[in-house]
Design a protein that fits this description.
The complex is a heterodimer. Chain A is of the alpha/beta class. Chain A has 14 helices and 16 strands. In chain A, 65% of the residues are buried. In chain B, β10 (294-296), α11 (303-317) and β11 form a beta-alpha-beta unit. By secondary structure, chain B is an alpha/beta fold. The two termini of chain B are 20 Å apart. The chains are: A alpha/beta, B alpha/beta. β6 (163-166) of chain A pairs antiparallel with β6 (156-160) of chain B.
Chain lengths: 423, 403
């Protein structure tokens, strides 16, 4: 280990319920929900008809007409948020060696919205087996291969260092930031613009989650549909959005007098090697990732002040991660507030991990634990303190955030104040 | 902490040969795997050639329960991983499960599977979409399925950087080995030769419209006018050198250096960054340009891309300063599978002391490159450089060294 430590000096979020980190934090700290009946298309044929949609106008955020045509919605989110994170950090990228500035973008399903719409056209509504290339949009290839997102972000911010997309399903948002942290630690970059973006609210995504009953059919009360850790939970609510960060080496961030939100002190990912969508209830692999992340952060489990849970609101997930928290933190798991912001902003697949890192950093910034909305009926299998309904004022110096995804991936990240004492 | 990372196993699925033995014999023999598309009728499309894998029997090689839930790309990747593990003499059932991870590159995921489900959605209705669509098409599918099939609970990962991704995956595997995981299955395989995948690839505007398989994909040729896409790639077993030694395995060689950059925004007036990636990889490997015995070029196959690469290579190595070869002229460009296949070729070249040839091209004299043409060239080889670029400006470079 080279001794280089990595901190967050800029944050931007686009999430359901509000564009921008202030609107995002207001939603969370007030325990409001942004889930609603789907408006992007007619949801009538679907089992699940709720989603957490972002009200986002690309022109309002400075994208040009050609950018709007070229970029899938998820790429639009990424470009706007990466610029916002750089602005928040006060970092003047043109004054740096651009080869020392990298980009890492997480996304689970890339330009799935664009692909769905374009397939419908080139196949003429599914009628043509031999689809018609003359109806394809010129940027269809960039929809197919989502590394285009990383190129767009690099162009938007002026980065020319190591750049890639990390696509590990629903842990992409943690893993992309973890990848970026390693680039800075090993010295391959001094700054990385890292985050993730997904905009999956599209008929093909709704249909595939309908088929495995992963999403909730609770459309009578869409604003209460996402119910992590509640006994009545019956699936997640699909969301969309993005969060981006400026990650820098600690000493140079201090030297330029940057505002430091948090250090990314530890990160690990492990696999359950069990099932593409299923989870064993014991949480062993997630616990392994948590233990490794804590070890890298040189923190005891007792140092964790808040757990930002994956909390998707499926029966199996919430049980699985509750077991993992107990396995890693022991009795301290019962004393630590745990909450799921997916109760408010839904589950935006590859983006949510970064959005949850943003929530964790802002929780440290404001010393407030965001609540788990819609949690009215405790589940005996989920017996921790999930901060129901109302945010809680509390000093927060260290946060654990976790993710779990299709493919069996389990990731954990520890954010901490850089001034902490190291064990 | 810079533990030495070695490659101990190769699993090759290539249009010109399945398995290391057949691939290498074909590659040294100049046998290519490019032809008119047979998977569907390409008559109405402006490009009709591809590097297709013709002799792949998934039913024979994989359990039948995996077939309905996997795209062709995942079947190829699972088989390549099986072969690579066997080549490395590594039996996952007898290694600690958290000591093995899977980090692959992907460009298009299970795109053909996605085509089928999109068709079901739009022609029949949402209730006809398969339960497997939720994971069979996404970019993480190969890493997930390889980890499950082999009981690997260590770090997993997936990178997407179009054609450069294969090297980025191997570099990420090296990082995780240095962080303490002894063995990582890595590399990449792509396959999307289906009408929907073909229309998406056509949209990139760089596919050749030639109908002559031996005069189509022509990197560094005056007639270069686009590339032939292909399917396949390679899976590699990367290991901590000490762990491999403890297992009593003789590695192919070491992953000695890596560098990556992205080009500036088009129209910015700034220089492209491939040379910078090469210099970073050389420094990382602690070697000089003079130590590189052969370069496996990316070989875009279009004049602008070829010129940029020729300039980068001559900037670092001088005019005709190092032998350069493009064995992918025999397979077409395999997206994230291309660079891992070139890494396999580089390790085999180091082993056998022979540079595989570039076929079909009549080099353009404007490029000051020492291209290895037509026939394999015997040479004393100790260190090789593999270059890979991705649409959007991704540049990656990797130095590999003989064991």
């Amino acid at each position: 280990m080279s001794g280089r430590r990595v901190v967050i000096t800029g944050i931007e979020v686009i999430a359901p319920g509000g564009v921008g980190r202030e609107n995002f934090w207001n939603l969370l700290s007030n325990g409001r929900t942004a889930t609603r009946g789907i408006t992007f298309f007619d949801p009538a044929p679907f089992r699940s008809r709720v989603a957490a949609e972002a009200d986002f106008d690309p022109y309002e955020h400075g994208l040009t007409p050609q950018e709007v045509r070229r970029l899938d919605r998820a790429a639009q989110f990424a470009v706007v948020a990466s610029r916002g994170a750089v602005a928040d950090s006060g970092l003047d990228i043109p004054s740096l060696d651009p080869h020392r500035v990298g980009v890492t973008v997480g996304s689970a399903v890339g330009a799935t919205m664009g692909l769905d719409q374009e397939y419908r056209v080139v196949s003429d509504g599914g009628r043509l087996d031999t689809v018609d290339h003359t109806y394809a949009v010129p940027h269809l290839y960039d929809y197919m291969v989502p590394s285009s997102f990383a190129a767009e972000v690099a162009w938007a911010v002026g980065a020319e260092g190591p750049s890639t997309v990390v696509s590990t399903g629903c842990t992409s948002g943690i893993d992309s930031v973890g990848y970026a942290v390693e680039l800075v630690r090993e010295g391959s970059a001094d700054v990385v613009i890292a985050g993730s973006s997904d905009a999956p609210i599209s008929p093909i995504t709704m249909a595939c989650f309908d088929a495995i009953k992963a999403t909730t059919p609770r459309h009578d009360e869409p604003e209460c549909a996402s119910r992590p850790f509640d006994k009545t939970r019956n699936g997640f609510v699909l969301g969309e959005g993005t969060a981006f960060f400026v990650l820098e080496e600690l000493d140079s961030a201090r030297k330029r007098g940057a505002h430091i939100y948090a250090e990314i002190a530890g990160y690990a990912t492990r696999s359950n090697a069990y099932h593409m969508t299923g989870l064993r209830p014991d949480g062993v692999e997630m616990a392994e990732a948590i233990d490794l992340a804590l070890g890298e952060a040189r923190l005891n489990p007792q140092s964790i002040d808040y757990i930002n849970a994956h909390g998707s609101g499926t029966k199996q997930n919430d049980r699985h991660e509750t077991a993992a928290f107990k396995r890693s933190l022991g009795d301290h798991a019962y004393r630590t507030p745990v909450s799921s912001i997916k109760s408010m902003v839904g589950h935006s697949l590859g983006a949510i991990g970064s959005i949850e890192i943003a929530a964790s950093a802002l929780a440290m910034e404001y010393d407030v634990v965001p609540p788990t909305a819609n949690l009215h009926t405790p589940d005996p299998e989920c017996d921790l303190d999930y901060v129901p309904l109302v945010a809680r004022d509390q000093l927060i110096d260290a946060v654990l955030t976790v993710g779990s995804g299709f493919g069996g991936f389990q990731s954990a990240m520890v954010l901490a104040t850089p001034e902490r004492s190291l064990v | 902490m810079t533990a030495s990372v070695v490659v101990t196993g190769l699993g090759v699925v290539s249009p010109n040969g399945m398995g290391v033995k057949d691939y290498w014999a074909a590659t040294l023999g100049g046998k290519h795997g490019i032809g008119r598309i047979t998977r569907f009728d390409p008559t109405g499309y402006p490009a009709r050639l591809a590097g297709q894998i013709e002799d792949f029997d998934a039913e024979e090689l994989l359990p039948s329960r995996l077939l309905p839930q996997t795209d062709r790309v995942t079947r190829l990747a699972l088989v390549a991983a099986d072969w690579a593990l066997a080549d490395a003499g590594a039996d996952p059932a007898h290694l600690p499960e958290f000591d093995m991870g899977v980090i692959t590159a992907s460009a298009a995921g299970g795109f053909e599977f996605g085509q089928g489900e999109l068709q079901a959605l739009w022609s029949q209705g949402s209730q006809y979409v398969s339960a497997y669509q939720s994971f069979a098409w996404f970019y993480a599918v190969n890493s997930g399925q390889i980890s499950i099939r082999n009981g690997m609970k260590g770090p997993s990962g997936v990178v997407v950087s179009e054609g450069a991704g294969g090297l980025d995956a191997v570099a990420q595997a090296r990082r995780q080995i240095r962080r303490g995981t002894p063995l990582i299955v890595t590399g990449g395989v792509d396959a999307s030769i289906c009408p929907w995948g073909w229309v998406a690839q056509l949209a990139c505007g760089r596919l050749t419209t030639s109908d002559e398989p031996d005069h189509a994909y022509l990197p560094f040729d005056r007639d270069a006018n686009g590339y032939v896409p292909g399917e396949g790639g390679a899976i590699l077993i990367a290991e901590d050198a000490d762990a491999a030694r403890a297992r009593g395995v003789r590695p192919y060689g070491e992953v000695a250096g890596y560098g990556a950059t992205i080009d500036p925004r088009p129209g910015s007036g700034r220089e492209p960054n491939l040379a910078k990636a090469i210099e970073t990889a050389l420094a990382d490997a602690d070697v000089n340009a003079a130590d590189i015995d052969v370069v496996f070029a990316d070989g875009a196959g279009d004049p602008a891309g070829d010129l940029a690469e020729a300039r980068a290579v001559s900037t670092v190595f001088g005019d005709r300063g190092v032998p350069v070869t493009v064995p992918k002229t025999m397979t077409g460009r395999l997206y994230s599978g291309g660079a891992p296949l070139d890494l396999a070729a580089a390790f085999l070249a180091l082993r056998d002391g022979v540079i595989p040839p570039t076929v079909h091209i009549d080099p353009c004299a404007d490029y000051p490159l020492d291209l290895v043409l037509g026939e394999p060239r015997p040479a004393e080889l100790r260190t090789a450089l593999v270059l890979a670029r991705g649409a959007g400006g991704f540049n990656s470079a990797m130095v590999v060294r003989a064991a």
